[in-house]
Amino acid sequence: MAALATAILVPLVGATTSTAAEGAAEETLPPFYQAPATLPPADGDIVRSEPIRYLLDPAGVTDVAFDSTRILYRSTNRTGEPHAVSGSVLVPEAPWIGPGRRPVIGYAVGTQGVGDTCAPSRLFSESIEYEALFMAGLLARGYALAVTDYEGLGTAGMHTYMDRVSQGHAVLDAVRAAQRLPGSGLTATSPVGFYGYSQGGAAAASAAELAASYAPELKVKGSVVGAVPADLTALPGAIDGSLWAEFTWFAIAGLSASYDVDMAGYLNDAGAKMFAEISDDCVFDLFNAAFTDSREFTADGSNLEELIGVEPFRSMIADQRIGRIRPSAPVLVSHSLLDDIVPHRVGKQLATDWCDRGAKVRLSTNATPLHVGGMLNNATEVYGFFEARFAGLPATSSCWRL
After folding, report:
1. Cα 319 to chain center, whole Å?
2. pLDDT of residue 11 exceeding 80
3. Are residues 248 and 261 in the same domain?
4. Residue 367 maps to a domain
5. What is the mean pLDDT of residues 59-73?
6. pLDDT of 316-367, one tens digit each?
């Protein structure tokens, strides 16, 4: 297993971040990411696939450890319209030695940005996907990964960042696509888990909520979700004017695109310029708007916390609330008390809301510094949780103390 992890880490980790930043202005989508005029009939059906080749592994040494496939598949957005989503399927070459069939994890990545060059399926090739280390740990344990790029991240249109339904569907349909991918060794009977942190935590949590209604055939065994921005009203007050200020504008850009809200009347000239510029930004470009006050960009001088309190933003943001639907399988929620982006109270409230609806939930609170640090706790707890779920062991719950 150590050799497998090493083989994974060499191609996926170690390059600089300049490639994504330099390519952010790219306007023409590569042919692979262009959707055909007619999509296949069912959500999760594959439009096309191709092997992933890594910049740091031109000889294809990685193929000895795992198969890497880039996919374009059908999903359904918030309004019920079918669209094409890109993603990746990673499957270890070593035979699965656990009970039953090899599990597949619907891996929901954290914030990548909103520009098409930020798509994880493209960053893999350039060896700069920052979550590769955590993916390597799951692959080393024999799990297959279905990694979605989400709606509009890599494909045509704006990435609908933080759109609860779109992100949840993208995760669920990525798992379906992985199970239908020829040669993956996965089938409709493969056990399923969901994993994500931050934006990925929201996407994985949404997938956990929507699985029973949207993809009831999936054999979901559990989910691990960390630092979930389950209540977006808490974010502007936490990060406006901070290093992470651009994240709130990512959300406004993604949700206004999803809900067809014209932002022109809400932004001043500086805001319009900023809004246009961030449409190609990746997470590595967050310094472009770091430490800015949202009042610098709004037409009436209000801050984002005030803006999202009025229509149409109030209803739009309220729609994204996670915790109102009971997950059908156990969930581990992790969150740091020292999180500087998503307040811990948001994660605790999510766990409480799910408990109140009869879900089996364990809230794991830690004191690892800041939002980025909390990701380490989330990543280390995932292994024992999934091993127990895929072995059929009963899940513990902390609902009694919430």
Report:
1. 18
2. no
3. yes
4. yes
5. 76
6. 999 999 999 999 999 999 999 999 999 999 999 999 999 999 999 999 999 9
The residue among 262, 293, 318 that closes a domain is 318
Ramachandran bin of 183, using left for φ above 0, alpha for ψ from -120 to 50, beta for the remaining angles: left
Question: Look-up: residue for tokens 């309220």?
Answer: 318
CA dist 184 and 374 (Å) reads: 32
Apex CA 345: angle with CA 114 and CA 257, to 5°? 25
Please give the Cα distance from 144 to 138 (Å, whole number). Answer: 8
Query: What local confidence, expressed as pLDDT, does residue 129 receive?
Result: 75
Distance, CA of 196 to CA of 194 (rounded, Å): 7
The pLDDT of residue 25 is 37
pLDDT attached to residue 57: 47
- Block residue for tokens 């696509």: 177
Q: Are residues 261 and 396 in the same domain?
A: no
pLDDT, residue 64, reads: 53
Range of the domain at 79: 2-231+330-401
Name which of 287, 294, 278 is nearest 241 in CA terms. 294
Q: Has residue 42 got a pLDDT over 90?
A: yes
pTM for the whole thing?
0.91
CA distances from 288 to 99, 229, 268, 364 (A): 49, 23, 18, 34
Closest CA to 92 of 103, 78, 107: 103
Overall size of the chain counted in residues: 402
> Among 278, 298, 318, which residue terminates a domain?
318
Looking at the structure of the chain, the number of domains it has is: 2
> Does residue 26 or residue 163 have the better pLDDT?
163
Task: Give yes or no: residues 220 and 292 share one domain.
Answer: no
Strands of the sheet with 361-366, listed across from one edge: 46-51, 66-76, 82-92, 144-148, 104-108, 191-197, 219-226, 331-336, 361-366
